[in-house]
Specification:
Layout lengths: L2 E5 L3 H12 L3 E4 L11 H10 L2 E4 L11 H6 L7 E7 L10 E2 L11 H12 L3 E5 L1 E3 L5 H6 L5 E2 L8 E3 H13 L5 E4 L8 H12 L6 E2 L1 H4 L3 H7 L4 E2 L2 H7 L8 H11 L1
Parallel strand pairs: 1-2, 1-3, 3-4, 4-6, 5-12, 6-10, 7-9, 8-11
Helix pairs in contact: 1-6, 7-11
Keywords: NAD
Protein name: SDR family NAD(P)-dependent oxidoreductase
Organism: Qipengyuania polymorpha
Length: about 260
């Protein structure tokens, strides 16, 4: 039975684990939903030694900037297949232009993520750069219901996003194709404004979208304001070409409709 070890069994990695178990894999993982304690060095090293594939979804530490996985276990990683869930935030602001895996990294606000991204690449990992992740239980629908959705008056502002199940299918494709090490953008085909997403979710639920506000009027948290400080379109051509991957939800419209159908 093939074995997979996951550092950080969160929202995305948890769905990936389910998909791999359904394919007959043994999956062990750290995290609150996992079966291995990250701090139990003996157990982690044993699991790493038994796993042919290793995935980390653990972000850098906010205070130190260090990657907890590499900081603790880099010398114990062996020769397995490595994957790392990174962020398209490593590209920084592109003023609305397209970015791909050849675009420079490290110039944005997520410097720690960029450094971790680079270290995993040096290790020979497949680094999956992800834009805004949404899916069942974690989408604009919850923010609309809670009254926390915003429409911000920023003409020309666009974002890329990806449905969680398209991340899973991308990871599965990377393993099935034995994709070469390197960076892969997993994003949908249609970068769009956050306003468009909010308006479509409101339409699907039959409610009025929130009023259009300036960035100042919206009184966003520093983290949310940082979200609007960068403007880029993320190209996914390499993942399609090398992994043989196609997003099931090529735009936010199909993704939101699928989530709504589950309600």
């Amino acid at each position: 039975m093939p074995r997979l070890f996951i550092f950080g069994l969160g929202y995305t990695a948890g769905r990936f684990a389910q998909a791999m178990r359904a394919r007959g894999w043994q999956v062990d993982a750290t995290g609150s939903a996992g079966n291995v304690d990250f701090a139990d060095r003996e157990a982690v090293v044993q699991a790493l030694g038994e796993a042919g594939h290793v995935l980390s979804s653990v972000p850098p530490d906010r205070e130190s900037g260090l990657d907890p996985v590499l900081d603790a276990y880099r010398e114990d990683m062996g020769e397995a297949w490595f994957g790392y869930l990174s962020s398209t935030g490593v590209y920084g602001d592109a003023a609305g232009a397209w970015v791909d895996e050849h675009s420079p990294t490290g110039g944005g606000r997520r410097t720690a993520r960029s450094e971790a991204d680079e270290k995993w690449l040096e290790l020979g990992a497949r680094v999956f750069r992800l834009p805004g992740i949404y899916g069942p239980g974690r989408s604009i629908f919850e923010r609309l219901e809670a009254g926390k959705a915003h429409r911000i008056d920023l003409p020309g502002q666009v974002f890329s996003r990806v449905h969680v199940d398209d991340i899973v299918s991308g990871l599965v494709a990377a393993i099935a194709s034995d994709a070469p090490p390197g960076a892969y953008n997993l994003s949908d085909d249609f970068p769009a404004s956050q306003n468009a997403v909010v308006e479509e979710a409101a339409r699907l639920t039959g409610v009025e979208p929130p009023p259009l506000k300036t960035l100042e009027e919206a009184d966003l948290s520093p983290m949310a304001r940082g979200f609007y400080a960068e403007n880029r379109r993320v190209a996914n051509g390499k993942a399609k070409r090398v992994l043989g991957w196609e997003p099931r939800y090529p735009t936010y419209r199909e993704g939101l409709a699928a989530i709504r159908a589950l309600a």
